[in-house]
Amino acid sequence: MIERYQYSGIEKIWNDQNKFDTWKIVEQKYLETLEDNKISPKGVSSIIEKTEVLKDEVYAREKITNHDLASFVDILQDKVGENSNWIHYGLTSSDVVDTANSLLIRESLNITIELQEELLHQIELKAKQEMHTPIIGRTHGVFAETTFLGNIFGNWYQEIKRNKIRLEKCVQTISVGKLSGPVGNHTVVDENIEKLTLDKLGLEPEIFASQIVARDRYAEVVTSLAILASSFERVSTNIRGYQRSEVSELSEPFKKGQKGSSAMPHKKNPITTERITGLARVVRGYSMSSMENIVLWHERDISNSSVERIILPDAFNLLCFITKDLIAIFKDLHINHRSIEKNLSDAANKLGSQKILSALVKNGINRDDAYRSIQDLTFDDSSTEDMVKELSEKYRLDPNLISDFIEEETALVNDEESFNNKFQ
């Protein structure tokens, strides 16, 4: 991931040194289990625990072996010395790499989930602050009917909450390792040793493993991140729409000293929500790569390996980065209540159309005929009062039958207790 979009907590997990350190943990816990079960001599696991394998050492050795895990094992054995031949006993590369990957992915998921909790908190605060703020609702970008700004924020909250639940399910899906050797057949490492070692790492064994942890698990993680990124893009796209000059109802924060344009001093461009939109596209692309990685030859090939070196750290980096962006936006989101009220006023003649239609239908008027009559009047920009007058004359109705119905149905309120309960 380029430095501009790195998230420090994720970068600490996926840098090569931490990756090698995690490989060492897997090898150490495995040796510890062998020792506990009197399969290998005592003491090697404790030496491994204290031994440091530096990334530059692995890089240098890999120039000879052309194999990073084999290089790591060579260096670890050299440093441990006596009885080091028990290191990696009966294992294949994927036993260590895939088991370590599960630990790295799980740690990344936990950080991502924590950030979603912070984001949800900020959206909930804004929703509750604006639960009684009427705003013109739009469908197809066109004035529809009045809703509440708190309801709009609540809708976003619920979508992101569903995404958080998906990520929590992914923690369970990915908490799987394998120490079953080449092609997963337990020729050297029996199932009990595998289970005891994975227990120490908080992982379950991959049942009927091939040579790898199944890549549909990885795909579930990455596609869940892609769905979340798409939800972020929906929120961001709508904030951008609200920030348009002719709408001007919401806008993202604009810091002191910030410049919106190199040429036009008046500009306050929605650059953060546009950045979220762009980076969401990248994460979605990774979901396709993750699904293609499911398709491997027989017990395994490594066509997935090069892809995962990119998409796993990048997807988590980008997701966490844009989550922090959204958190900052909601903390200081600018809400222009004057524009909200003005747009409601401008839409006033459109807002009664469904209520007038319902009033006419309720009073026995043919629905299609009533619809066409109201449509003609609204397209002519007739006021609500003029429409009530013309329609009551046309259909020989007491105008109060229409006016009273509109008034009753227009009593738009949010019950505070009911509203707050929706965030439980």
Explain how this protein is built.
The structure is a single chain. By secondary structure, this protein is mainly alpha-helical. It is 66% helix and 5% strand. The strands form 3 sheets. It has a two-stranded antiparallel ribbon. The protein has a two-stranded parallel sheet with strand order 3-4. Strands 5-6 form a two-stranded antiparallel sheet. It contains 18 helices and 6 strands. The protein is elongated and about 100 Å long.
How many runs of DSSP E, i.e. beta strands? Answer: 6
Architecture (CATH level 2) name of the largest domain: Up-down Bundle
Order of helices and strands: HHHHHHEEHEHEHEHHEHHHHHHH
Q: What is the CATH superfamily of the largest domain? A: Fumarase/aspartase (Central domain)
Instruction: Report the total helices.
Output: 18
β-strand amount: under 5%
Q: Which secondary-structure class do the elements indicate?
A: mainly alpha
Mean pLDDT: 93
How many domains, as an integer? 2
CATH class placement of the largest domain: Mainly Alpha
Q: The CATH topology of the largest domain is what?
A: Fumarase C, Chain A, domain 2
Largest sheet: 2 strands, antiparallel
Gross geometry: elongated
Strand order of the largest sheet: 1-2
The whole-angstrom Rg is 30 Å
- Poorly predicted runs of 5 or more residues: none
- N- and C-termini, Cα separation: 36 Å
The helicity comes to 55-70%
